[in-house]
Specification:
mainly alpha; 16 helices
């Protein structure tokens, strides 16, 4: 059954294959991000603007968790699919086994380290003493379920590569629905603590449920994923998994580092009102980034298998299908932000006069960053799937750390609050230009070989 599904990706009409993988990937990404969106809305209307500011402080924590889960997950998934495309099923399962163990062990270790260091992560993420109690209430539950969240990311990628993207979507929907119901019950009717703790418990319950459902897939008869003993694991496998997964995972690490610096600069140049608006906007940014990564993840199984079979023309056609999808998504959401900036903020909280004053500039400025973000993430994922590690990592580093951190350090002192959103927008457009050059160089080499 698995061989039939994989062979189908090597022939037939690409649009049908693309839709088959795209819709579950986007659905899974959207429902996963609903966790943070629903939490932010519940907190905004149940706790207030200070609660949204506290939720913004948690964004770096989510980014760090997603970085680690995607690092091992995407790295293992690409190597798994590439091995299968070459007909090496046992090698593919060896990559799956090693990546699974790395994800679980690192998740437990990092969760324990954060708990042992107390408030250090929250203070580095931009918390001040006024909102620190709210951050603690929510953050405890996030950290406790950190290993589950990482395993969920890894298993979602592995199971998609095993030909069951709809199963992943179903598990994510169940977990997301439980989180939504829990947010409503625990933040409003059965308010737990200030309401922040209730949102945290709801998120933890949804994450745990989703992970258990994904683990259950491994027990199904149709599952082609198998655990192999250590003697079957590839030598140097840990480094290879990290190298292959790094470029796709790095945007999540950037979310952690950049969000922390955004929080610090927003609080310094615009106060709690600006931090609340940036918190709401970065929640939307996180959703869109997940959708953009979802497009890259949907492309990955198609490209990996055709790359293993050396079908380069088919790979190029699949890329352009994905590029059109990314451009349409980015353009649509950017127009919505430009036309309705106050509406975006009202989705998350009751705006105060201070929030109304600063919201339009922040929302419109950040909206302009969405189209280039989608295309750059796709380009980095595409290069990574083709095992072009150096340009892929270079793009990810340029976008996620080098340009963004440089601009965030330089522009706000010169331009004030406008410098915060301008730093993000300038980073995305400059990185898109670099991505276009990297793709042109790759395709030029392929043409010269012919």
């Amino acid at each position: 059954m698995q061989a039939v599904q994989e062979n189908a990706l090597l022939r037939g009409e690409l649009r049908g294959h693309w839709r088959r993988y795209l819709l579950p990937a986007l659905g899974g990404a959207a429902v996963t991000s609903v966790y943070s969106i629903v939490d932010t809305v519940a907190i905004g209307y149940g706790v207030g603007a200070d609660g949204v500011a506290a939720a913004a402080v948690l964004v770096p924590c989510f980014g760090l968790m997603a970085f680690l889960g995607t690092l091992f997950g995407m790295g293992g998934a690409v190597l798994l699919a590439t091995a299968r495309g070459r007909g090496r099923l046992r090698e593919g399962n060896a990559w799956f086994t090693l990546a699974f163990l790395l994800t679980a062990l690192v998740g437990v270790a990092v969760s324990a380290a954060v708990l042992l260091t107390g408030d250090l992560l929250w203070l580095l993420s931009g918390a001040d003493r006024a909102i620190l109690p709210l951050v603690r209430e929510y953050g405890l539950w996030v950290v406790l379920t950190w290993p589950c969240a990482m395993l969920s990311l890894f298993l979602s990628l592995a199971i998609r590569n095993d030909g069951a993207p709809r199963y992943v979507l179903g598990a994510v929907i169940v977990g997301g629905c439980l989180n939504i119901v829990g947010d409503w019950l625990l933040v409003f009717p059965f308010k737990v603590g200030t309401g922040m703790a209730g949102a945290g418990i709801a998120t933890a319950a949804g994450c745990l449920t989703q992970t258990l459902l994904l683990l259950g897939y491994l027990l199904r008869a149709r599952c082609g994923l198998r655990f192999l003993p250590p003697r079957a694991w590839p030598r140097g496998g840990t480094g290879r998994i990290c190298a292959v997964g790094f470029s796709t995972a790095l945007p999540h690490a950037a979310t952690a580092a950049v969000s922390a610096l955004i929080n610090v600069q927003a609080l310094r140049h615009g106060g709690v009102a600006a931090l609340s608006v940036f918190g709401a906007c970065m929640t939307v940014f996180a959703l869109f980034q997940q959708l953009a990564i979802g497009v890259a993840e949907a492309l990955q199984p198609i490209v990996s298998l055709n790359f293993g079979a050396q079908r380069r023309a088919r790979i190029r056609r699949a890329f352009w299908l994905a590029a059109r999808t990314s451009a349409l998504m980015g353009g649509a959401l950017a127009v919505a932000g430009l036309l309705f900036p106050q509406g975006v903020v009202r989705l998350f909280m009751r705006p105060t006069p201070e929030i109304v004053a600063v919201a339009p500039g922040i929302v419109r400025g950040l909206a302009c960053a969405l189209p280039p973000m989608a295309l750059t993430i796709l380009a980095a994922g595409y290069l990574q799937t083709l095992l072009r590690t150096v340009p892929s990592i270079g793009l990810a580093l340029l976008r996620s750390l080098i340009l963004s951190l440089t601009f965030l350090l330089l522009l706000p002192p010169l331009l004030g609050l406008a410098g915060v959103w301008l730093a993000i927008t300038a980073t995305e457009w400059l990185t898109l230009a670099a991505a276009a050059l990297a793709l042109l160089a790759l395709w030029g080499k392929e043409t010269a070989r012919r």
